[in-house]
Specification:
Layout lengths: L15 H16 L4 H12 L16 H19 L16 E6 L7 E2 L1 H7 L14 H15 L8 E6 L6 E9 L7 E9 L5 H9 L3 H11 L4 H8 L3 H15 L4 H16 L20 E4 L5 E8 L4 E5 L11 H9 L2 E7 L15 H16 L4 E4 L1 E2 L2 H10 L4 E9 L6 H5 L3 H12 L4 H15 L1 H8 L4 H7 L2 H10 L4 E2 L2 E2 L1 H11 L4 H6 L4 E6 L7 H8 L6 E5 L6 H4 L1 H15 L7
Parallel strand pairs: 8-9, 8-10, 10-12, 11-12, 12-15, 15-16
Antiparallel strand pairs: 1-2, 1-5, 3-4, 4-5, 6-7, 7-9, 13-14
Helix pairs in contact: 1-2, 1-3, 1-10, 2-15, 3-6, 3-10, 3-16, 8-9, 12-13, 15-20, 16-17, 16-20
C-alpha cells in the first residue's frame, strides 16, 4: 500500500532556526550597532504574530532563551559604551580588534601594529621586522611576499602563508593583502590567525554567562583553537573532566556546539575591543543663544532641571521635549517668543540631561506629571498653554487633569493618541514600529533595542541617525535640512545623547509608558485641546489619527500638509499664532509694559 504525499508543517517563526538567527543578530548588534537594521528585519518575524487579535487580550513576548541572550549581549554593549574613545577616524588596524595584524612595506621595521599584535608578537609601531617570532628564513619569505603584494607585483592580489611560531611552536596563518596609503613606499596588511583576549575580557565573560574561573579558562582555550586534549594537559585534568565542564559551559551559555560557542564569544570579543567614533560637535551654526540650565532639588535623591527663553514677564508656555529631548527651538522661533510676549519654560524630564531618574518601579506617568507641576509651582506659574509633541500628550493631559490651575489649554504638535489595534502599529514606518511595537509586545527586550539604537546614533552621528530613522517622512527630512532646525534638533537633543551622556534608560521608560492604555486620561481632559497633526508622520499616520479621534470628540484635530514628526519645527509661526489665540480665548491677556 503506497503512502500518500506528506506535508510539512509551515515553519514556526519561533522555531530553532529562526530563534538562532535572532540570537545571531542580537550579538551582531552588540558587536556593531550599525547592524541594527538587520535585527529589525528578522525580529519583525518574531513579534508580528503577537499583533494578531484584540490588543487587550495579547500577551507580551515571553521567551526566556532570547531574553537571556539579550541580557548577555547587553553586558557587552555596556562595555562597548564604557570603552568608547574620543578621537578621529578608525584606521584599518582599529577595524581588526582581535587578530594580530600589522602594516609593513617589507623593510627593516614594522610601520604600524594593532594591540593584539603587541600581545601576540611583541610588535609596536616601528618595531624591527626581525623581532617577529619566526625563523629567519620564514621572515625573509614574508618580507619578500609583503614587497611583491604591496607593489602589486604578485600574480595574486592576496597571498596566504603558513609559518610556525617560535613562541608557541604552533602554525600561524598569515594573510598578506595590499592597502591604499599615503606612505612613501607601498604598504601591505598582514593579518594573522593569532587571537588575543582583551584586557578584562575573562571577567566580562564570567559575568555575562555565570561561569566559574575554570570554565572561563576552558572557553578561552576553545576560542583560541586548542583541542580538548591540550586544554586538559595545560590544566592538569583529564580530557573527560574537561569535556564534562564543556557540557556545563554549553548549558550556561545556551549554545549547542563548540562552534556556536566560539562564534558567540568571538563576536562579543569584538565588542570589548572596537572603539567607536565620538559624536560630532553640534555647535557649528552659532545662531542659538546659550540658555542657562536652572535646577531645583525636590529631595535628597532627585534634582529637576529646565531652561527658559522668551519674555520673562510673558504669558507662560510649557513646552514638552518629546522622547528625543528636543529642548531648543530654532533661533528665529526663540527670538519670536520674546517679541510675542511668551515666556517659554522647557523642563528636562527624568533621566534626561541632569534631571535624575525616578526610582525603578515608580509610576512613570504620575512621576513626570509631578515633576512638571513642581517646576511650575516653583516658578509661581498658573494657566500655561502646554505644547506637547508625540506621546508627550499624555503628560500634558494628565497635568491638566491633576492640576487644572496650572493648564489653560493644550496645543499638541504631531501628537500620538493611545494605540488601540495591531493594524495601527503595522502602519508605522519600520523604525518607529520596531521600538513602539516592542514596547507593547516585548518590553523585556526593549532596553537592549533602545541601547543599541543609541549606540547606532553614536556610530552614525546624530545627523545621519536622524535621517536614517525618519527616512520614511520626506517632510521631516526636508524640515531637518533647514539650518536653523538642524541646529535646534542637534543642540536640543544633547540632553538625550551627547559625547559622554546617553538617556537610553529614560527613553525606554518613556516608550513603555506611551504604549500603555492611557485613554482614560484623554477622556478626563477638560481644558481646550487642539492637535496639529502631520500628513507624513511616520509614527502616527493620518488614517490612524482619524480612527483614534473618533473616540475623543472633545479633541479638535487639524492636519497640516507636508509635515511629519517635526511639525513644530516646520510650522512654528503657525503654532505660536494658535498659542496666542488659545490664551485670548481663555482670557489671559498680554503682559503690560
Amino acid at each position: 500500500m503506497s503512502k500518500g504525499p506528506t506535508h510539512k508543517p509551515p515553519p514556526d517563526p519561533a522555531g530553532r532556526d529562526h530563534k538562532a538567527e535572532i540570537v545571531d543578530r542580537l550579538y551582531d548588534v552588540a558587536l556593531d550597532p550599525i547592524r541594527l537594521s538587520e535585527l529589525l528585519e528578522v525580529w519583525e518575524g518574531r513579534v508580528a504574530p503577537l499583533r494578531i487579535g484584540p490588543m487587550d487580550q495579547a500577551d507580551p513576548l515571553n521567551d526566556p532563551e532570547i531574553e537571556a541572550h539579550m541580557q548577555r549581549a547587553t553586558v557587552f554593549l555596556d562595555r562597548f559604551e564604557a570603552t568608547k574613545q574620543e578621537g578621529g577616524y578608525r584606521s584599518v588596524l582599529q577595524d581588526i580588534p582581535r587578530s594580530a595584524a600589522f602594516l609593513s612595506d617589507g623593510g627593516m621595521t614594522v610601520n604600524a601594529a594593532n594591540r593584539p599584535a603587541e600581545v601576540a608578537f611583541g610588535l609596536r609601531d616601528g618595531s624591527p621586522f626581525a623581532s617577529l617570532p619566526f625563523e629567519p628564513e620564514d621572515r625573509a619569505l614574508l618580507s619578500d611576499v609583503i614587497r611583491r603584494v604591496a607593489g602589486r607585483k604578485s600574480g595574486e592580489r592576496v597571498v596566504t602563508l603558513r609559518i610556525r611560531s617560535m613562541v608557541t611552536q604552533s602554525p600561524v596563518i598569515l594573510r598578506v593583502s595590499p592597502i591604499e596609503s599615503d606612505a612613501p613606499r607601498p604598504l601591505a596588511l598582514v593579518l594573522s590567525t593569532e587571537l588575543v583576549w582583551p584586557d578584562g575580557f575573562a571577567t566580562t565573560v564570567q559575568e555575562a554567562f555565570g561561569l566559574t574561573g575554570a570554565e572561563v579558562d576552558i572557553v578561552r582555550g576553545i576560542t583560541l583553537g586548542l583541542p580538548v586534549k591540550d586544554i586538559a594537559e595545560a590544566r592538569g585534568r583529564s580530557a573527560e573532566t574537561v569535556r564534562t565542564q564543556l557540557r556545563s559551559i554549553l548549558a550556561k551559555t545556551e549554545t549547542h556546539s563548540q562552534s556556536e560557542l566560539v562564534r558567540v564569544v568571538l563576536g562579543l570579543m569584538d565588542v570589548a575591543m572596537i572603539p567607536i567614533e565620538p559624536l560630532e560637535p553640534v555647535a557649528e551654526m552659532g545662531r542659538l543663544e546659550p540658555r542657562p540650565l536652572h535646577w531645583l532639588r525636590i529631595s535628597e535623591e532627585r534634582r529637576l532641571t529646565w531652561i527658559e527663553f522668551g519674555d520673562p514677564a510673558g504669558r507662560p508656555v510649557l513646552f514638552m521635549h518629546l522622547d528625543y529631548g528636543l529642548i531648543r527651538w530654532p533661533a528665529s522661533a526663540e527670538r519670536a517668543a520674546r517679541r510675542r510676549g511668551l515666556r517659554v519654560i522647557v523642563p528636562v524630564r527624568a533621566g534626561y540631561g541632569k534631571t535624575d531618574l525616578h526610582p525603578k518601579g515608580a509610576d512613570h506617568l504620575r512621576g513626570v506629571t509631578l515633576d512638571y507641576a513642581a517646576v511650575l509651582d516653583h516658578l509661581g506659574i498658573r494657566g500655561a498653554v502646554v505644547v506637547p509633541q508625540g506621546a508627550d500628550l499624555r503628560f500634558a493631559m494628565n497635568l491638566a487633569n491633576q492640576r487644572p490651575d496650572l493648564v489653560c489649554g493644550i496645543l499638541g504638535c504631531a501628537c500620538q493618541l493611545p494605540i488601540r489595534t495591531a493594524a495601527q502599529y503595522d502602519r508605522m514606518d519600520k523604525w518607529q514600529r520596531f521600538i513602539l511595537a516592542n514596547a507593547r509586545y516585548a518590553p523585556k527586550i526593549l532596553p537592549f533595542l533602545v541601547q543599541a539604537g543609541f549606540s547606532l546614533a553614536r556610530r552614525l552621528g546624530k545627523d545621519s541617525f536622524f535621517r536614517t530613522v525618519n527616512g520614511g517622512s520626506p517632510a521631516d527630512i526636508e524640515t531637518f535640512a533647514q539650518p536653523e532646525v538642524r541646529e535646534a534638533v542637534l543642540e536640543g537633543s544633547e540632553v538625550c545623547l551627547a559625547r559622554k551622556w546617553s538617556a537610553h534608560e529614560a527613553f525606554t521608560r518613556e516608550c513603555i509608558g506611551s504604549e500603555k492604555d492611557w485613554s482614560d486620561v484623554v477622556h478626563a481632559c477638560k481644558v481646550p485641546v487642539l492637535l496639529l497633526e502631520g500628513d507624513q508622520d511616520p509614527q502616527a499616520p493620518v488614517l490612524t489619527i482619524r480612527e483614534l479621534a473618533e473616540a475623543y470628540p472633545h479633541v479638535e484635530i487639524r492636519f497640516l500638509p507636508f509635515t511629519g514628526q517635526l511639525l513644530f519645527f516646520a510650522q512654528w509661526p503657525l503654532v505660536l499664532d494658535e498659542v496666542e489665540l488659545m490664551f485670548d480665548r481663555v482670557g489671559i491677556s498680554l503682559p503690560q509694559g
